[in-house]
Design brief:
twelve-stranded parallel sheet, 36 strands
Amino acid sequence: LGSAGINSSGTIGTLTNAGTISTTGSGVTIAAGSVGSIVNVSSGTIITTGGANSGIVVGTSATVASLTNLGTVAGTGVLTRGISVATRGTIGTLTNNGTLLGSSIFSYGLQVAILGTINTLVNNGVITDTGLFGQAVAVPQGFIGTIVNAGTIQGESVGIAITTGTVGTINNLAGGLITGGATGIANVTGTIPVVINNAGTISGPVSLSAGPDAVNMLAGGTIAGSIVGSVGSGASVNFRLAPSGTYALASGGIASVDTVSIATGTVVTNAGSTISGARLVTVGVGAGLNAGGTI
């Protein structure tokens, strides 16, 4: 389609793609107005090869009630996004069962920016960025209410990057993977908190904000990296493991969070995985803390 894909500023009930939309501009642009649902089926491919564009972009106060991807939505140029929500655009529910991809330098699998909103993001597929400094899910100046992940969120640099934006809750379910070459999850929004409920795998450090973030470690969950907060922020790490479960802290351990609580199960530290800077450490009845390292 050259530089032009599909551009709508009106009202659409359902937009379905089962073929290929390949452009140097954005593949599908909802510039204004409203769309009931966008569905990219398993055979569908929406791709932009030009710089600073998106496979799908929702902006300028446009609304999309639901967007479902079963195929591939990708950006392959510099600063491109698989899906972008910006300029007060809104997606009610974004469900990804396929692939959202950014594959060049400073690109993103999914970006929510400039007061864009996604109420609920459900990922059962792959959201990834393979380009240098890439972030799989980036939230600069945008808002995501809830992220539910049972698939893979993988960034070359950061898995989920919350920068001057807001994410209310991240639910990483059993079987879910959130990973980044530098950081698994980074919340650098100042004092706006995020709640992370982890029953899957987070690979890479978890960097918390200066606000009361909460990391809830659930049965079966693991973080292959340190958890680092800010002293006095009100942040907490809470272990709700299986009653007979044992969790060994990864290298770097837990640093500078106000509260560490172990309600169930046993947490093990060693010389390389300490608990440091916590104001309060609590261990519930029947739970345990095997302190082989420093607390």
